[in-house]
Design goal:
Alpha-Beta Plaits, globular, single chain, binds flavin-adenine dinucleotide, 14 helices, 393 residues, alpha+beta, binds iron/sulfur cluster, three-stranded antiparallel β-sheet
């Protein structure tokens, strides 16, 4: 082989070990964190989802990104026990998506000297993972934010440096993010790491929530101060009520699909492509605990539909976290199979509707709200018929 042929072979080989998962990529950021030469950068695509962009000219073909990727490397555990939970403190219950299991566990964890890293949301700046170590700072974590919050390289650094200082860390995120954290933290530090995954049907993009919120402000002529995805409203228990609060003092509550962001989420037209093929939508779980909604029809006395969390205990560390809960809420063991039977992402990924192909191109052309109405036309039709029948009756 001549010298120039050898050079060509080396050049062809460059970057062949670099991670490239296409539509299966969850955007978890583990590969960016793992790259020793910094040739991976997370870049936002035209729909507003982050994907790794690899500079193959500087890639040294070490394969560390492939090893860190949860799609190749994941340890999952089958749940041992299931519980239903509702927090006793009304401030926790009223701000949480379901029964406030996350906030209660986080509270117990920080009062035991640990630090918690979870998602907080700002209607102007968007969501971010924050690491906190006091009870007062936990309030911004309460409530589910139904869109993708990017896990950045700096977040992995924060987790690792807290663990290095001997502080126990509790991380809560989607299953793909939990696995990314698990793969990123060196084995020697893992004993202090506690993981909670949420049951996850999928995530819309950051660009989509921004587009929705800016349209809301334009229509209202006032700045949006707060957007709660699941406000607790009397008489609407068991429904997703979106609450929008404005700078002019007005507040608007919209039930279920009446809110156009929730409608697109519920009809699954705005989710990341990877979510329709999610390998973590199954009974084997990523975290020490799994949290979700307890929708079972047979609720014991004292538990309210829509205000009850489902907790799955998957590991010994999970049992330890539950042991710390003390008297913060009401917890009751429930039959595992019955409690998980109807929760789709515990069995398989949600299906991809045909309208998914059009949602983001339409959003860019005609705006979020009109795209949501068009792509969720079944809901819009039902809604129009209901209104028509209502006005005649
Ligand atoms: C995108 C998404 C989809 C979901 N789909 C389902 C489902 O199909 N079935 C089901 O039973 N439950 C689902 N959940 C979980 C559900 O909304 C509640 O989180 C769960 O019932 C626990 O409620 P809680 O009151 O204990 O905690 P909450 O107060 O809701 O928990 C808050 C914590 O959850 C985590 N979290 C919130 N938003 C995000 C986000 N965007 N990305 C990563 N982590 C986040 C954070 O760490 C946050 O601080 C979903 C949650 C999200 C964010
Ligand atoms: S981790 Fe290694 S193989 Fe992956 S992109 Fe970086 S240098 Fe290349
Ligand atoms: S799934 Fe995560 S680790 Fe794998 S390629 Fe995508 S961002 Fe990188
Ligand atoms: S559905 Fe799967 S891929 Fe999508 S955000 Fe949830 S865990 Fe990640």
């Amino acid at each position: 082989m001549s010298k120039s042929q050898k050079e060509l072979t080396v050049q062809r080989g460059r970057g062949t070990m670099a991670v490239d998962k296409g539509i299966y990529c969850t955007g978890c950021g583990a590969c960016e964190r793992a790259c020793p030469v910094g040739c991976i950068e997370m870049a936002v695509d035209s729909e507003g989802f982050s994907f790794p962009r690899i500079d193959k000219t500087t890639c040294i073909d070490c394969g560390k990104c492939e090893k860190a990727c949860p799609l190749n490397n994941n340890t999952l555990q089958r749940s041992k026990n299931a519980y239903c939970y509702t927090a006793k403190t009304s401030s926790i219950l009223s701000t949480s998506a379901s029964g406030g299991a996350f906030s209660s566990i986080a509270r117990a964890f920080v009062s035991d000297g640990g630090a918690v890293i979870a998602v907080s949301d700002d209607v102007q700046k968007g969501s971010s993972f924050e690491l906190v170590s006091t009870g007062e700072e936990l309030s911004s974590f309460a409530g589910s934010k139904y869109y993708q919050c990017d896990l950045k390289s700096s977040d992995f650094v924060k987790i690792e440096s807290a663990l290095k200082q001997g502080v126990c860390v509790l991380f809560c995120g989607t299953p793909c993010q939990v696995l990314a954290v698990k793969n990123a933290v060196p084995k020697r530090l893992q004993h202090g790491l506690y993981l909670i995954d949420i049951i996850c049907q999928g995530v819309p993009s950051r660009t989509s929530i921004d587009a929705y919120r800016r349209e809301v402000e334009k229509r209202k002529g006032s700045k949006l101060l707060q957007h709660v995805f699941r406000a607790k409203v009397k008489g609407e228990e068991g429904h997703y009520v979106s609450r929008l609060s404005f700078a002019d003092g007005d507040r608007c509550d919209q039930v279920g699909g009446d809110n156009l962001f929730t409608r697109a989420f519920m009809y699954q037209v705005s989710l990341r492509e990877s979510c329709y093929q999610c390998p973590f939508a199954r009974q084997e779980r990523a975290g020490d605990l799994t949290l979700g909604d307890y929708w079972s029809e047979s609720l014991e006395e004292g538990y309210v539909r829509g205000s009850t969390s489902l907790i799955l205990e998957n590991t010994k560390k999970g049992a330890e976290l539950l042991g710390q809960l003390g008297s913060l809420g009401r917890i009751q063991k429930v039959p595992l199979e019955a409690a998980t039977a109807d929760n789709i992402p515990l069995h398989h990924p949600v299906s991809r509707p045909f309208a998914r192909s059009f949602f983001y191109p339409l959003m860019r052309k005609i705006g979020f709200m009109r795209a949501s109405k068009l792509c969720c036309w079944r809901y819009s039709l039902k809604h129009a018929v209901r209104r028509c029948v209502g006005s005649r009756g």
